[in-house]
């Protein structure tokens, strides 16, 4: 029978918040990074749900030919996030 610690470990998926932020930061800095990330990732691949939403919004803007920069907060996929989180993400 599994112990409490084993059950806890099974519920937490491996993840790296720093890696997720790095992907998003790269996408903000370089349009080619958006193409690369879109080929490999989906919003469900992000452990932090908020980062997945930001990722989806950036890809959506790129597909529409719009600028993917600090002003992307009006993208439809992004509207549900709180303004506070957006400011925090940009400041990181």
List the helices and strands and how they pair.
Blueprint: H1 4-11, H2 17-29, H3 31-40, H4 49-63, H5 83-91
Helix pairs in contact: 2-3, 2-4
Features:
single chain; mainly alpha
Description:
It is a single chain. This protein has 92 residues and is mainly alpha-helical. The protein is built from 5 helices and no strands. Helix 2 (17-29) runs parallel beside helix 4. The longest helix is centred in the middle third of the chain and has 15 residues, at 49-63.
TL;DR?
It is built from 5 helices and no strands.
pLDDT averaged over residues: 77
Query: Can you give the helix content as a percent range?
Result: 55-70%
- The count of β-strands is 0
Low-pLDDT regions: none
Listing every helix as H and every strand as E from the N terminus to the C terminus, the arrangement reads HHHHH
Major sheet characteristics: none
Distance between the termini: 43 Å
Give the number of helices. 5
**Proportion in β-strands:** under 5%
Task: Categorize the overall geometry.
Answer: globular
- Rg is 15 Å
Helix/strand/pairing category: mainly alpha
């Amino acid at each position: 029978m599994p112990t409490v610690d084993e059950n806890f470990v099974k519920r937490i998926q491996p993840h790296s918040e720093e890696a997720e932020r790095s992907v998003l930061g790269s996408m903000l800095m370089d349009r080619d990074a958006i193409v690369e990330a879109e080929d490999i990732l989906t919003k469900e691949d992000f452990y932090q749900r908020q980062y997945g939403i930001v990722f989806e919004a950036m890809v959506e803007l790129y597909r529409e030919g719009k600028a993917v920069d600090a002003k992307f907060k009006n993208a439809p996929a992004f509207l549900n996030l709180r303004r506070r989180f957006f400011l925090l993400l940009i400041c990181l």
